[in-house]
Design brief:
Blueprint lengths: L3 E2 L8 E7 L4 H15 L2 E2 L4 H16 L4 E10 L2 E8 L19 H8 L4 E5 L4 E8 L1 E2 L4
Antiparallel strand pairs: 1-2, 2-4, 3-8, 4-5, 5-7, 6-7
Helix pairs in contact: 1-2, 2-3
Bound molecules: adenosine-5'-triphosphate and magnesium ion.
């Protein structure tokens, strides 16, 4: 896997990676997250970052179009990171109200919960980027 710092468009340092739009890319996305957090000496104690990026990549596989997705992670503050997953589909995510009996439609409910509501969609010239922010721990394992 090749990672490289992305141009920062909102201040903090960031890493981004283009990946094929397929299920196996969730693992590469988690590895990018782990590399970035390690580079910044941050710890994702509860594994929220990995869960969120996995859900967002899965959504591109299930619901988006075109061959490639772009996964990014940006350090927004001392202990806050923003995870982003961009695809080239104009269809928008629709967060459903929580239905405990539903088999599908749980992914964004989970993202909303783990990010404490700090998620959204950036409309891009082609497609969109779904993002979510989470708090992580500075330094090694606590
Ligand atoms: N990247 C995306 N592109 C287009 N539509 C999306 C995208 N992500 C989500 N959606 C839309 O938002 C809906 C809700 O997404 P959510 O992840 O909550 O549920 P799901 O993917 O249908 O099911 P689950 O995640 O529980 O397997 C999806 O059914 C889809 O219509
Ligand atoms: Mg989903």
């Amino acid at each position: 896997m090749v990672t490289e710092p992305a141009a920062a468009d909102s201040g903090g340092p960031a890493y981004t990676l283009a990946l094929p739009r397929r299920p196996q890319s969730a693992r590469d996305a988690r590895e990018l997250m782990a590399s970035a957090l390690s580079a910044w000496d941050l710890t994702d104690d509860d594994g929220q970052v990995g869960v969120i990026v996995s859900e967002l990549v899965s959504n591109t596989v299930r619901h988006a179009t075109e061959a490639t997705v772009w996964v990014s992670v940006r350090r927004m503050g001392p202990s806050t990171v923003r995870i982003g997953v961009a695809d080239r589909s104009d269809r928008m995510p629709i967060a459903r109200s929580e239905d405990l009996s539903a088999v599908h439609g749980r992914g964004l409910v989970l993202v909303d919960s783990l990010s404490e509501g700090r998620w959204g969609v950036d409309v891009l010239p082609v497609g969109k980027r779904v993002w979510a922010e989470v708090s992580v721990t500075e330094g090694g394992h606590s």
